[in-house]
Amino acid sequence: MRWSVVVSAAVASLVGLGGTLAILVAAAQAVGADALQTSSWVSALCLATAVASFTLSLRHRIPIVTAWSTPGAALIASAPGQADLASAVGAFLFANALILLTAAIRPLGALIERIPSSIAGAMLAGILLRFVVAMFDSAQAMPMLVLPLLGLFLVIRLVTPAGAVLTVLFAGIGLAYALGHGTAWPGGAVLSTLVFTAPRFETSILIGLGLPLFLVTMASQNLPGFAVLRAAGYAAPSRAILAVTGFASILTAPFGAHATNAAAITASICTGPDAHPDPQKRWLTGIAYGICFALLAAFGTSLTAFFQAMPPALIVTVAGTALVAPLAGALGTAMTAPEDRVAAALTLAVTASGVPFLGIGSAFWGLAAGLVALGLSALNARGRGGS
C-alpha cells in the first residue's frame, strides 16, 4: 500500500463529498426532509458508496470507485414540493429497480444507450441550469458573500478545475462567519443515525421523478464512469457495477439515499498513474476510497449539521459552482449534432421550466418533447426521401 494510494483516495473522497454536499442538502430540503432525515440521507449515500467501491475493487482487482448521482440530486432539488420524502423514497426504489433490471436484461441497457446523446444532454442541462442561475439570484440578496466567491472560482479554476469548488467551499465558510452570516454550529463529532422512511408509491412521482432519476443516473453517471475505466485501460465490468450499485441503492433508499452509481470525476483521480504507477495495483485505491467513505458515513450527522449552519446563499453558490462544468458539458453534448438542435433546445426549455403537467415533473416532459420532435423530423425526412 503506497502513500499515493491513500492520498489519491482521500482527495477523491473529499472532492466527491465537498463538491456536492450542498446539492444533497438542497435535494433533501426540496422533499421536506428534517435535519435527522437529511443527515441519514448523506450517511446512507456514503455507506452505499463505501460498500460498493470496496466490494467491486476487491472482487475485480481494478480501481472501481462509486459515487452518488449528482445530477439525480440536482433533479430532486430542482422541483421543490413535487414530492414529499415518502413518495420520493418510492421513486428512489423504482429508479434503482430499473438499474437492476438494466444489469439483468442486456437489451434494456442497449435501449438506454439508444437515447440520442443530444436529448439526454439537453435534459441534464435543463435540470442543472436553474442551479447555476440561482447563484445570481443569491448575489442580489448577499452580494458581499456571493460575488467574491464567484470571482475566486473563476481564478482558481484556471489553475486547478478540480480544486476550484473546494476552494469556494472553504473560503465561503470563512467569509460567511467573517460577515456574520454563519450560525452557531452544534459542534462535536456526533455519530450518524440512519432514519427509516416507509416508501409510498405514487404513479405521477414514479414517472415524473423516478424515471428521470434512472435516466440521468445511467446517461450522466454510469456510462461516463464506464468510459473513464476504459480510458484508463481497464475492461469495465458494467453489468457487475450496475448490479452492485443498484442493490446497494435499494438497500439504502429507505434511509434517504437516492442513487449510487459508477463515479466519473473521482474515478479519474483513482485510476491514473498518480494513484499508483503499476496499473495492476491501482485497485488498492478503490479499497482506500471505500474506507474513507465509511468514515464519512459515520459522521454524516456532523457534516450535515455544519452545512445547515451556513447561510442558504453559500449553499446555493457552492452547488452552482459545482455544476457549472457539468452544465457546460451537457450543453455541448446537446448542441453537437446540428440536425438535433431544435429538439434539444425544446428538451432543455421544457425541462428548465420546472412546470409539472398531470402531476408529472418537467424532466420527463422535456425528454418526451425532444423524442417526439426527433421522431417527427425523422418521419418528415423519410417522406421527402420517398417522394
Provide a descriptive summary of the structure in words.
Helix 1 crosses helix 13 (283-298), helix 5 crosses helix 6 and helix 8 crosses helix 15 (312-334). This protein has one domain (3-386). It is an all-alpha fold and 387 residues long. The protein has 17 helices and two strands. It has a two-stranded antiparallel ribbon. It has helices at 3-18, 21-30, 35-60, 70-77, 85-104, 106-113, 117-141, 143-159, 161-178, 203-231, 238-252, 265-271, 283-298, 300-308, 312-334, 341-353, 362-386; strands spanning 66-68, 260-262.
List the helices and strands and how they pair.
Elements (H helix, E strand, L loop, with lengths): L2 H16 L2 H10 L4 H26 L5 E3 L1 H8 L7 H20 L1 H8 L3 H25 L1 H17 L1 H18 L24 H29 L6 H15 L7 E3 L2 H7 L11 H16 L1 H9 L3 H23 L6 H13 L8 H25 L1
Antiparallel strand pairs: 1-2
Helix pairs in contact: 1-12, 1-13, 2-3, 2-4, 2-15, 3-11, 3-13, 3-14, 4-10, 5-6, 5-10, 5-11, 7-8, 7-10, 7-15, 7-16, 7-17, 8-9, 8-15, 9-15, 10-17, 16-17
